[in-house]
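INFO  loader      accepted 1 record
INFO  loader      residues=82
INFO  predictor   begin
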Amino acid sequence: MKNFIVFSISFLALFAAFQVISGYLMTLFFTPDMTTVWRQSGSLSSSDVIKGNPSLSPFLSAFFAATIAYFSPKLFVKNSRN
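INFO  predictor   done
INFO  writer      dumping tokens
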């Protein structure tokens, strides 16, 4: 059980770190097309507000994937002790 807890915590920490790093790199290398965006902005309302709450679903799905990945070898590999 201790191995599973260590595995889960390290997996989720690495998952979060990779998400932050990939978001940073995507933002860093993104080049917007300003002429197209400027033409499309004329039809937008000036009172629109973007709202949203952060979601834990990626972390929960990663946790369940890690759990399945951790326990699945025990289902397919026979115990070598007889």
